[in-house]
Amino acid sequence: xxxxxxxxxxxxxxxxxxxxxxxxxxxxxxxxxxxxxxxxxxxxxxxxxxxxxxxxxxxxxxxxxxxxxxxxxxxxxxxxxxxxxxxxxxxxxxxxxxxxxxxxxxxxxxxxxxxxxxxxxxxxxxxxxxxxxxxxxxxxxxxxxxxxxxxxxxxxxxxxxxxxxxxxxxxxxxxxxxxxxxxxxxxxxxxxxxxxxxxxxxxxxxxxxxxxxxxxxxxxxxxxxxxxxxxxxxxxxxxxxxxxxxxxxxxxxxxxxxxxxxxxxxxxxxxxxxxxxxxxxxxxxxxxxxxxxxxxxxxxxxxxxxxxxxxxxxxxxxxxx
Length: 321
Hints:
Blueprint (H helix, E strand, L loop, with lengths): L1 H11 L4 H15 L10 H7 L8 H13 L5 H19 L1 E4 L2 E3 L11 H13 L3 H42 L5 E2 L2 H13 L28 E7 L23 E5 L8 H15 L2 H15 L5 E6 H12 L1
């Protein structure tokens, strides 16, 4: 700790630089902004109502907690109960602002912080049951866990699938800037880091960077940039949308579609679920149930457009006028 404070003092002239920076970030992002849920109850809802992240874990852990509290001389059970629900309380009810009243920011992936003690409570509860009940509850927990994990993998895959293909396209065109949405930008950076490269020259850039490209030298029909359009961005409602540039619509040229990419084993589970729906439900009911899964079943490949020097110059002229 002392070494960290000394390092910040040497580099920034302020040993508390990190604390001040993080305080400003929390104030701007979570207190003044609404980018993340800062209410009190999200984790309780995710554990006991919207259980598509944790399956039966919340209910089995609660049953283990109640069962354990009824037993005397079980300090190890009480330790795990305090551990699990103490973390749940802290990460739910710790205030980060009193005016306005806001609690610590919450995301579903943050639940991994306290799932270990909850899993211990759930496992202990199953161990107290008879063989038949333990087998049925355990099988239900395993089946729901595998199915929900596969569906979660599919949800992530359909959002990032075009971003991965766009990153490959950008690597294949190192001499020409490739511009695209946030999904493509992040996937491009991730692929570069995984390759062990610090050279950000081929990273996919925001569409707004088109206005900064040098256009002075070269032929009018030279391609100065490629643009990626990702229809799968609609499956990411929290994503920041970049403003479109309508002046490009009439002069950009369609190059083709991005190559398809592997969607993982989650697609097999989703295919099985859709098959069960078709087999068990009548026509109209099956159609309504299938429509719920359409967003993570149907994948639209991204489109690639080229922008010539003449097109980029015309865009700047129209924007300036």
